[in-house]
């Protein structure tokens, strides 16, 4: 009897914790003060996509509250919009839902607050095409977000032989990779990506394919956002692939993958010859796939990481209902015989 009472008492507490309200403060990390008037949305991922649970605005003291009266549980996402930039905070079941701090920053149109710390071009030729993958890492050490939709957060060169077919993903600090479109600029074959550079590290992935040829001469151009400092461009060639030309200099071989690293010595237009075939993917990864196109891997949504927690809560609530129903049944009541 005592165990049953403890069980009945504990489960509603767990359910109440799962459906508890979310309250906190929007903090402007540029000024170090609470930020009023920020629009905030609470969303929950599900099988049908993102479900909006509520919207609110931070008050004069930067405080906000979501009562979360709809069934909760699992991960939820706080989205704040400030200065035309969205800031997110992932709320998982192990994170306290009270006194949450949601960070925002003042925005600036000066690209000088950020700098490119890494730019790497990976060349993977096959017999039918050449897969080109460029990784760009941008660091923002300031307490402001660089955002200028006219200049973009990234600019890159896209060879005409790609026929304008390119895939781009952008990942902000503590965020997830998001697909982004390539936008044309006034300069021929130069494209931009409209994406804010928040304090911390932002990573861009640019991939496209070119028709194969052996040898093949690649023509490129070192470009960037004006006034945003940039480091050197490195070219990575897998084992079996050779890069040669006056605009590149061999730096060495990476011991694990046996890939050769080159430095592009030109500051504007450059070219180099590509010969051979090879890939940085292991044989196990490529054994079951004969496609020449860049691969897209499919993964489960993040909500599956909390599936066990959700099922446990559901079964617990169901057990409470069954116990209550059983105890109130005439079968168990002497007066009901």
Q: Short description, anyone?
A:
The protein is mainly β and 337 residues long. It is built from three helices and 24 strands.
What's the SSE pattern? HEEEEEEEEEEEEEEEEEEEEEEEEHH
CATH architecture descriptor of the largest domain: Sandwich
Count of separate structural domains: 2
Question: What number is the mean pLDDT?
Answer: 82
Beta-strand share of residues: 35-45%
Q: Can you summarize the main beta sheet?
A: 8 strands, mixed
Query: What sort of overall outline do the alpha carbons produce when their principal axes are compared?
Result: elongated
Terminal CA distance: 22 Å
Judged by helices, strands and strand pairing, the structural class is mainly beta
CATH class of the largest domain: Mainly Beta
Quaternary structure type: single chain
Looking at the structure, the CATH topology of the largest domain is Immunoglobulin-like
> Helical element count?
3
How many strand segments?
Answer: 24
């Amino acid at each position: 009897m005592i165990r049953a009472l403890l069980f009945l008492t504990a489960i509603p507490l767990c359910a109440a914790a799962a459906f508890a309200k979310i309250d906190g403060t929007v903090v402007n990390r540029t000024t170090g003060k609470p930020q009023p008037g920020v629009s905030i949305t609470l969303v929950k991922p599900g099988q049908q996509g993102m479900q909006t649970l509520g919207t609110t605005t931070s008050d004069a003291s930067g405080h906000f509250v979501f009562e979360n009266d709809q069934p909760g549980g699992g991960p939820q996402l706080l989205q704040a919009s400030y200065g035309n930039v969205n800031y997110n905070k992932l709320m998982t079941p192990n994170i306290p839902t009270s006194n949450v701090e949601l960070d925002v920053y003042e925005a600036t149109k000066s690209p000088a607050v950020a700098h490119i710390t890494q730019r790497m071009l990976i060349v993977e030729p096959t017999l039918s095409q050449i897969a080109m993958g460029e990784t760009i890492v941008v660091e923002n050490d300031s307490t402001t977000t660089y955002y200028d939709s006219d200049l973009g957060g990234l600019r890159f060169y896209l060879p005409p032989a790609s026929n304008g077919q390119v895939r781009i993903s952008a990942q902000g600090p503590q965020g997830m990779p998001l697909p982004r479109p390539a936008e044309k600029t006034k300069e021929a074959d130069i494209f931009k990506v409209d994406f804010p550079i928040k304090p911390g590290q932002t990573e861009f992935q640019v991939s496209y394919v070119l028709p194969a040829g052996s040898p093949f001469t690649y023509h490129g151009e070192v470009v960037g956002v004006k006034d945003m400092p940039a480091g050197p461009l490195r070219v990575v060639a897998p084992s079996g692939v050779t890069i040669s030309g006056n605009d590149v200099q061999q730096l060495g071989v990476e011991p694990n993958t046996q890939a050769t690293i080159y430095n592009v010595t030109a500051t504007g237009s450059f070219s180099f010859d590509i010969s051979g075939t090879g890939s940085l993917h292991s044989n196990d990864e490529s054994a079951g796939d004969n496609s020449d196109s860049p691969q897209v891997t499919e993964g489960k949504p993040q909500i599956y990481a909390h599936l066990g927690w959700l099922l446990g809560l559901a079964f617990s609530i169901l057990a409470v209902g069954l116990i209550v129903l059983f105890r109130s049944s005439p079968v168990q009541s002497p007066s009901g015989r």
